[in-house]
Design brief:
361 residues; alpha/beta; Rossmann fold; 2 domains; six-stranded mixed β-sheet; four-stranded antiparallel β-sheet; 31% helix; globular; transport; ABC-type multidrug transport system, ATPase component; ATP hydrolysis activity; AAA+_ATPase; nucleotide-binding
Length: 361
Amino acid sequence: MASAPPPPAASTPEPSAAPHLAVAGAPEPLAASAPVFVDPLAHGEPRPSLDAGGIVVDGVGRSFGAVQAVRHMTFHAKPGRVTGLIGPNGAGKTTLLLMLASLLAPDAGEIRIAGADPVRDPAAVRRAMGWMPDVLGTWRSLSPRVILTTVGRLHGMPRDAARARADELIAQARLDELADRPSRVLSRGQQQRLGLARALVHRPSVLLLDEPAAGLDPTSRLELRQLLRGFAASGGTVLISSHDLSELDELAEDAVFVDRGEVVGGERLVLARQAVREWRIRALDAAALSYQLAHIGVPFDRVRIEGELAHVGLESDEAAAAVLAHLVRAGVAITHFAPAVGDIERTYLGLAGGPGTGGAR
């Protein structure tokens, strides 16, 4: 273990004044700190029955000729939570989403959407689910108001109720000024907002979303997060497929990772946030930063200094908060303090064998 550098003249309190922060317990170097992996189906809980609610995928497979697009996929997206579906291109996500939406039958296994079987009772699945595909297949010559009213009528809503629901969703999607114009004039982000509104027309209990934040401006992204969190808090189930890992980190409570047609990992993100992970700390005075990190008990095999930037392995968000508070009290001028990557990105890189993750592939 390297010795600490000599203390700077300023911003170095007496040893007795500094609280000790125990962050030991990671025998490997910081770069090899691994995410917490748990059972992707139920996170260590008993295997749920097919009528457990939400989205249950049990041993599902689907082939196209000699190509096995999905094989033995098993997971549970629970009511009351937002679950992220993550994987590289060609991992089988689109095929899985089509099966969940009752648009493609599996060759093997069972699927339940709010207790309904999409093969035997697709109508029940479509009543329970709001489906937002990556590309909005809309009637380009019709207005958002007519589209939403028509979708409501197709779901069996009375005409007046369908119109009222369309007006409500148009306001929520901030499409008032375009409500009666042909949908072909909508921008990509506006089409995304219309697509989400269409998925919500019939007040489903399950939302299946493919890249819902694509093309959205920052304000719309914040509104999307609030809407989906509220939907889940009311008992709804949300499954989001997205390549935007930072956006999923803001939204998801659970994550399912797929590759080559299989579930390769799953985690409760609340558990991931309790695992040792790398934080990046930048200070104007690197020597003062290094000294203070040593002073509060951070082992030097867990710290890497690169100029003004320190890479530090910390065991929890609480430990990170304690380190930051100590540095501020010690007078160290901190200009950056944040996780090196988000929880989902860290797990994804670990599965893919990305840089600094210790992954196998």
